[in-house]
């Protein structure tokens, strides 16, 4: 029996599917029921993910051999802060040890650092240190920008904007990205046998503008892609978020993007090429806007 936090969410669902395909029994620890019609509903056992109750977490993890942890927050909202997410992760890892979990595979991000100017990356680094220093042997998988699958938010929403606006703004600085397919992330997480850190990045590197141009070509967009100062891009994203009742992109996310933090110096472990994948997705990509707040905060 393996456990996956958030098997009805994006990366967690693909990891759970990969485990099921390998004839593993899967339990998910989740804070909300599966959406109607989710393909994993009924295929995985369900246990509560009460991140404020360590004893409840121990009960939910009882009988688990490997814990695959995808829990994190994209941005703070209300009392749900990065500091809370770090403390909640610590409770989860302690509970795993108390429940007799034999191994933890934790999904992080490329280039986290305790000295980062970005709270997201500082928090990720703190959680990485917690799990690697804990009593349960742990593997930390660090993906870059993740794409693929109908639940994906970032690339889909880039395509949505390119279908609907005449001008699409990108940061003026030529930032690099190394997108990795979600299937590759799941495969690496399940197959990597050694404790320690492994980066999960794709085989192609683009500028962010170059990636947006590939998406535009795939969906037949005539939008003009215009480089603007980072502050101007952030203000446009904030204004779009007001209209869409969503957080489109945060200033921190733009800062990390322009600093090229979503890349790795390690050899690429992903095999799916973004340039080939995006050309095959024109039928559905960007047809519907994917709201982060609706997916993860309003349910």
Number of helices: 11
Poorly predicted runs: none
List the secondary-structure elements in sequence, H or E: EHEEHEHEHEEHEEEHEEHEHHHH
CATH homology superfamily name of the largest domain: NAD(P)-binding Rossmann-like Domain
CATH topology of the largest domain: Rossmann fold
SS content category: alpha/beta
Shape, principal axes of CA atoms: globular
Report the CATH C-level class of the largest domain.
Alpha Beta
Strand tally is 13
Radius of gyration: 19 Å
**How many angstroms does the end-to-end distance come to?**
28 Å
Estimate nothing, just give the exact number of structural domains.
2
What integer is the average pLDDT? 95
Strand order of the largest sheet: 3-2-1-4-5-6-11
Largest sheet: 7 strands, parallel
Task: Give the second-level CATH assignment, the architecture of the largest domain.
Answer: 3-Layer(aba) Sandwich
**Strand share of the residues?**
15-25%
What's the helical proportion of residues? Answer: 25-40%
